Amino acid sequence: MKDIMIMNVRKVAFGASVVFFTNFAFAQTLQDGINSLDSDKYAAAKNNFTQMIAKEPSAENYFYLGNTFLKQGEPDYAKASENFNKGLTADSKSYLNKIGLASVKLGKGDKSAIAEIQKIVTDSREKDPEVLFRAAEALTIFEKNNSPDLAIQYLNKAIEKTKKDIPAYYYYTLGDAYRLKRIPGEAMTAYDKALPLAKNKASVYTRMGTLWMAAQQWQQAKQNIDKAIATDQTYAPAYKALAAYDIKYQENAKATQDLLNYTKYADEDPYTQLEIAKLYFTNEDYANSKVVLDKIFDKIDDPIKFKLRAYVNYADGQYAEAKQNIDNFVSKAEKSRVQPADQGLMGLIAAGLAKTETDEAKKTALKAEAQQKIALAKVAKDETLKWDMELAKINGGGASQASADAGPSTPEIEAAKKLVAANPKDSDAIYKLANAYQDAKNWNGAVLTWQKMSNLLPDWAPAYYSQGYSYQQAGNNEAAMISYEKFIATVKPADIEANKQALAYSYFAIAFLEKDKDVAKAKDYVAKSLKLDPSYQDAINLNAELNK
């Protein structure tokens, strides 16, 4: 789930800052708060800045506390604004707090805040590198509401004005801006410049690792995350990045351990725990996600908690509860926070409710709602869930590990299961297990195992064909068609000859399943089947039937 994921990996790439004061003890206290913030210890950071305000209620101190609420996993705009306004009460000319309030507007989706930030910087006469930096940070902190070009301009000015002893976080944020522009080379160059300046190298290596992850260069990503942990085994964000890496490779047990380490080295701030609950969900560890979410549910005000609970309910097949929670989220959250994925989830929930609805009019309405809302997610090209496949699972009954375990087993299945458990990346073991499930006619087990294969080797087309066949044997024709379509789309031109028979069957199977719903498509697909294999008798018969 990309909007819940997750993984929110980009968050760990955003650097912290340091402001130097003449009073060394005070600067050290500020540094403690900044270090906590950079290490995802939000409770400690908030406590640190609150103590600083108690000693000196200055505009700057209110800004740092407010900024902490903006930079946590889910921004708390109300508390951030409260502190920025207090800062302006302390000093009505405070450029930092003016930037803070503009940041809140930008985070909520009001793009006019970009012009406000420009005006604040102009009013400051660009004399203070810290104002330039904070303006740039505000323009990079929100993934969907930002202005990286302007941020790069301000950061370069801040670097130029500083000249020597340039803080590492200037380069961190410069890297973030280039990431938003999808220029990974320039982003890595900025991180390279930060590395010798940073007191905690783990912070930089983690940023490099997540940059490689964004570029889907997984080996380099893992190397840098490993360097981060080797440099500082207590740096929590590195474990969150490692969890994202292990989730990508379906290594759920390792990801769970990563999350335990993240929990160990972060802190008990409710919003940090919310991030952990999200990551558990992404790891398909719904039980742990629910445990963490239940623990902090009443401690956080952000309506995002209702959305996450809705996903957990949906995963458990609790459609009525899921609907109540997603409706709560939509009614309480600002409109800018309701994403296409949320519409898609509402569609899936409606489809789930339709299955048990006895009133035909209500059932029809729910099915129409499902199609309409899932279409919104698909038009937006949202990939939080595989919408068609999820819908097919609901309509046809999805495969689960419980159903696979309850199905037939053989010595070959048990032996292969042990091999896969010992090495989840062993494609040969996964292949053996999938075929053993098929031989035993344990179609749910076969579906799940072929899915593991396609997760591990997404470009290996035969896994999609075999999954389609397994779905078809299990009686889930909608899911079978989706898998066959994926197989057809994945076969490379150079591999068509080697996959000719499987392609012919896939086209035929889709044509057969579509013949009563989409005659034009059925005719097209059966013709493609016969082109590949003119002697295929089932296709010949279907073609004759369709063209009477």
UniProtKB/TrEMBL annotation:
Q: Can you say where the TPR repeats lie in this chain? A: 202-235
**This protein's name:** Tetratricopeptide repeat-containing protein
Secretion signal span: 1-27
Upper lineage: Bacteria, Pseudomonadati, Bacteroidota, Flavobacteriia, Flavobacteriales
PANTHER family (alphabetical) = TETRATRICOPEPTIDE REPEAT PROTEIN 6 (PTHR44858), UDP-N-ACETYLGLUCOSAMINE--PEPTIDE N-ACETYLGLUCOSAMINYLTRANSFERASE SPINDLY-RELATED (PTHR44858:SF1)
* InterPro entries, sorted: TPR-like_helical_dom_sf (IPR011990), TPR_rpt (IPR019734), Ycf3 (IPR050498)
* Keyword hit for Cytoplasm: no
In terms of SUPFAM superfamilies, this protein maps to: TPR-like
Q: Which UniProt keywords apply?
A: Repeat, Signal, TPR repeat
